[in-house]
Design brief:
heterodimer, A: about 450 residues, Rossmann fold, Ubiquitin-like (UB roll), de novo design (two linked rop proteins), 3 domains, four-stranded parallel beta sheet, 20 helices, B: about 170 residues, alpha+beta, Arc Repressor Mutant, subunit A, Glutaredoxin, four-stranded mixed beta sheet, about 10% strand, elongated
């Protein structure tokens, strides 16, 4: 059983209130940082921890912080990305709902480290209940002297505000988020300049995910070296995994990075296996944007080693046989799931959410949706799979922001790993609209590598 | 889409609403009041049920920006309604995780129960419904939300949907 750094007290009654949270050691990291450390010391600890951005990109948080420009007399901003919209991901909603003070505490320490006097938590607009929870928590913290002017008598001032979004997936991209926070359409900016140089209102800005900010609390409490002892290799610490789909026990789990995928799915401590006695067909391991893998490749790497829940192991095999950690949105598909229908569902999502700024994404996502729709509804052509691959290749890498890649990868990977299911939809069109392809061979043991190499 | 005829319906912002706007705008640096646009549009929609052209024009005047700067934002973000809706808008998650556990059947059920297609309003003006993209609740699907509070209803079944609609209907009569 792994150590819980973020969710240890999640089941304590009243942990959403300041007093109970404080009685469980809450806000100790603020006292430690502000009274005994310099801002640079805090940055150094986060660097030592090896913490990687929990929003999806996995970029080292400490390094991101050290890039922040600090020109004299110019305001700096910390913006927390709570626009959680990646299909499959619901960890930030969970954390903000049940233990909001953890995020507030992390925001105070992180803002102190970066020298920000005004910070924002940009929450997706649909999460109005969470916005009210956070605003209440901020008011409590302010009343106790942890926010506002002269925090704990240190001379450090911080105002923290919650900003609602308007319902746009693209605003999870950090420069689109900043545009939105400035009251504009969420069109991603061309980089460079990066937000660390010119972000909110043209000022140096750091944008971090909710879970990354929350992780700063145990890192400061226990030290970066202690945090780095957890996990495996360059995947340090713990990670919140949102487990959904056809699982017996869906929910948010805090795992030590390095946990075997098989244990995560089947152990009673975690997801407890597949619901309704069904068999597992496929997994999307890190949110809808990452490649989907059939059962045999998610449980084992191509070298027949157990696949682990870590940045490196999930990516083992690259896009040929691997996937990515992403945001930790773990969706399990049972034997009744139709991969073609699911791929169409994802394509519709990306088409709906494309901001329309770059033609390859604006047009390409729509074409992919249409082609996948006709495949699913029995009007597909045998050339459609190659057409989809062709369109996806023309989107990938040709757009300002990664939404284009995120739209291309699920389609390309579904065809790569489930091509015969797609072909069956063309050759057996009338059958395909009335029944699903089933598990087929997708859970069969992988062929031995020698025979392939021979 | 914006419609010209909507421009004919006058809209009045109460002093209470304006003071909420003032509170929002006070969060941003001087001259950056446009940052308040999204939160202010949420308040307007909560008050009037949708963001009409006259309402958006008034928001533009309040924020000292051009009307087009409001229209382009309201039409970009999926949460703002550019035409009147039912008093209760049932927004059902239609993305992968929820579909695996029956979201599509729930939407079919809602359509049959309310007797209106997606985006249409029931004759009594009480309900409309639509599918929306992932609501970040994939472990508790199928889910739906109802604004302006965005209350969440999880693990939906046909029965729980019937009860919800019944409760809203009887609540609206009182």
């Amino acid at each position: 059983m792994g150590r819980k750094l973020l969710l240890e007290h999640i089941n304590v009654p009243g942990i959403n209130t300041f007093d109970v949270y404080r009685s469980k050691g809450g806000y100790a990291s603020v006292e430690k940082a502000i009274k005994t450390m310099s801002p640079d010391d805090v940055v150094e600890e986060v660097k030592k921890s090896g913490l990687r951005g929990r929003g999806g990109a996995g970029f080292p948080t400490g390094m991101k912080w050290s890039f922040l420009a600090k020109p004299e007399g110019v305001a700096r901003y910390l913006v927390c990305n709570a626009d959680e919209s990646e299909p499959g991901t619901f960890k930030d909603r969970y954390l903000m709902t049940y233990i909001p003070h953890l995020l507030i505490e992390g925001m105070i320490v992180s803002s102190f480290a970066l020298g920000a006097n005004t910070s924002f938590i940009y929450v997706r607009g649909e999460m109005m209940p969470q916005i009210r929870i956070l605003e209440r928590a901020i008011a409590e913290a302010k009343a106790k002297g942890f926010l506002g002017k002269n925090i704990l008598g240190s001379g450090y001032d911080l105002e923290l505000y919650v900003q609602p979004g308007g319902g746009a997936y693209i605003c999870g991209e950090e420069t689109a988020l900043l545009e939105s926070l400035e009251g504009k359409r969420g069109n991603p900016r061309i980089k460079p300049p990066f937000p660390a140089i010119a972000g909110l209102y043209g000022c140096p800005t750091v944008v971090n995910n909710v879970e990354s900010i929350a992780a700063v609390v145990p890192i400061i409490n226990d030290g970066g070296d202690e945090y780095a002892k957890l996990g495996i290799g360059r995947s340090t610490g713990t990670k919140l995994i949102s487990a959904g789909g056809n699982l017996k026990k869906p929910g948010v789990y805090e795992i030590d990075l390095g946990l075997p995928v098989e244990e995560f799915i089947y152990s009673d401590e975690y997801c407890g296996g597949i619901a309704n006695g069904k068999r597992l067909k496929a997994v999307v391991a890190g949110g809808s944007s990452v490649p989907i893998l059939p059962t045999n490749l998610i449980l084992k790497t191509i070298n027949n080693e157990p696949r682990l829940m870590s940045y490196e192991s999930l990516a083992d095999g690259g896009f040929v046989s691997g996937t990515m950690m992403g945001s930790g949105g773990f969706i399990a598909y049972d034997e009744d799931a139709c991969i073609v229908r699911n791929t169409w569902n994802f394509a519709r999502f990306y088409h709906h959410e494309s901001c329309g700024q770059c033609s390859p994404c604006r047009e390409g996502t729509g074409w992919m949706e249409k082609v996948l729709h006709r495949l699913e509804y029995g009007h597909g052509k045998s050339s459609d799979m190659d057409l989809l691959i062709d369109v996806s290749k023309k989107i990938e890498g040709n757009t300002i922001c990664p939404l284009g890649d995120a739209a291309a990868w699920p389609v390309a990977s579904a065809i790569r790993h489930f091509r015969d299911e797609f072909e069956w939809h063309v050759t057996n069109a009338s059958e395909a609209v009335s029944r699903n392809y089933g598990l087929a061979h997708y859970a069969d043991p992988l062929p031995k590598l020698e025979s392939v190499a021979g | 889409m914006l419609r010209v005829e909507d421009a004919q319906v006058p809209v009045d912002f109460s002093p209470e609403l304006i003071s909420k706007f003032d509170d929002i705008v006070s969060r941003y640096p001087k001259g950056k009041q446009k940052s308040g646009l999204l939160p202010i549009l949420h308040l307007v929609q909560a008050e009037f049920g949708w963001t009409s052209v006259p309402a958006m024009d008034k928001v533009a005047a309040y924020l000292e920006i051009l009307p087009i700067e409001v229209y382009e934002v309201a039409s970009f973000y999926s949460m703002y309604f550019l035409r009147p809706q039912g008093k209760y808008v049932l927004e059902v998650c239609r993305t992968s995780g929820c579909c695996l556990v029956g979201a599509e059947k729930i939407m079919d059920h809602i359509e049959a129960k309310l007797g209106v297609k997606e985006g249409e309003v029931t004759a009594d003006g009480l309900f409309s419904w639509r599918g929306v993209e992932c609501l970040a609740a994939c472990g508790f699907g199928p889910v739906l939300q109802i604004g302006p509070e965005y209350t969440f209803y999880e693990n939906l079944t046909n029965d729980s949907v019937d009860k919800l609609i019944g409760d809203l209907r009887s609540g609206a009569k009182n």
